[in-house]
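Chain A, query sequence.
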Amino acid sequence: MKHQTMISVLAALPLLAGCAEELVTETQEPVSPEVSYADEAETMEVYANSPVRLEAVIETPGPVECGWYVTALDADADGTPVEEKVGSTPAMTYIFPNMGEYTLRFEAWNEAGSTGRTWNVTATGIPLEVTFDVEDESISATVGDELAITATVVSGGEDGITHTWTLGDEVISSEAALSYTLREHGQFTLTYLGVNAYNVQVTRSWTLNIADLPLDVDFSVEDDITCTAGLPIRIAATIVTGSDGAEHSWTVDGTAAGTEAELKYTFESAGTHTIGYSATNTAGENVTRSWTVTVQEYVNGFVLFDFEASLPSNISASHVYLDDNPYETSLNQSAGVIRVDKSDATGGTSGYFDIKNISLTNAAEYTKVRVKVYIGSAPYYPRMQICAGSQPKLAPCSINGQAFDPRNPTAAAWDALIYTDDWNILEYDVTGGGFANFSEISQIQPRPFVDISGAQIGGATTETNPRIVYYDDIEFLP
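Chain A, predicted structure.
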């Protein structure tokens, strides 16, 4: 059926000859819709989840129906893209919900026909814009300086953004405002990566030129040294800053004694000596240091137990065993030693064993106990409990011939004197526990598995907590 538009005009004239003017009728044929578009391109790029204005202009007079249709080209469950009608007016606003490819179609129709067109639409993520308060591409600083850069999101981060700051291969921050203390010298690349909710990224990088501080060296032994002849002493030099090309040089009484970071040296006889140290780096900076060393004669004690043949009957504990010496060194060449073994323990333990019924001729002459102990690298601090009176647990007063403060023991002081790769010679002074001498003491109790405070070592056996310590040559000293 055609659509007709009737336009009527009635002329009001006087009656003539008894009749009226005839009614005049005009008929107009309908035409198919004509539509124009602001953009004639066949493709469209939009931002996902952002409003897009869609507009078609109907050029044809008269009633026209229309529709907008969207097909997401990511197939649905049955593999067929589904077209959805999203509007029925020539102009509308639409939001493409996800990033991806779409088909957008517009159609207009009336009774005379229809017209339309199709666009290929790409919905991309919302662009991300980030500014930085440090614009220079190269940054110069010094070790110890605080590196501070702030990333400010200008747009595109409304739905969330992640920040990642990377120095070299290390991620150092996930905050918008970077604050980081520079620990190493050299040239590094600092990289920023910002990613918004649409996986749109912003990257930026800087070259960092980090200068070192002047040459500075720490030493494991700070004070002058008193030691025992025949026992090696250790001094470790640790370069804190200014390490580029740094070389070590040690002397003993003016004679070259080593070029390593650690000096290990044995004085064979009593006397006074001087140890010197020097370090020089490629910048020509130099650090020197010297120590006065007082060497005392080694005093042979009364050896009550040497464990060469058998385990004495007055040593009792379920976890003490006679064993071959697994670490024969110049400090201890004994064939037989005892193994204190609590590797089956899962809770806290000090791993003690008892030496009972100590009977010494002229016991009043003896005030110290000296033992050889192999600890390895485990964090154990063997003590000696005196089983009399208040039963104090004594820390050593001497480690490898050098004085150690048993009243204020510290892990740092212990580490400066203890050998992790050799036997250690530990001396305990019973007068520090309130006893005059061994005339008042008949039983002692070595406790190898304690921490620096004297408390038990906790936890099950691990690589760093093996629960095995070796003892040898328990002797008594004046």
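Residues 1-24 have pLDDT under 50 and may be disordered. The domain at 35-124 is CATH 2.60.40.10 (Immunoglobulin-like).
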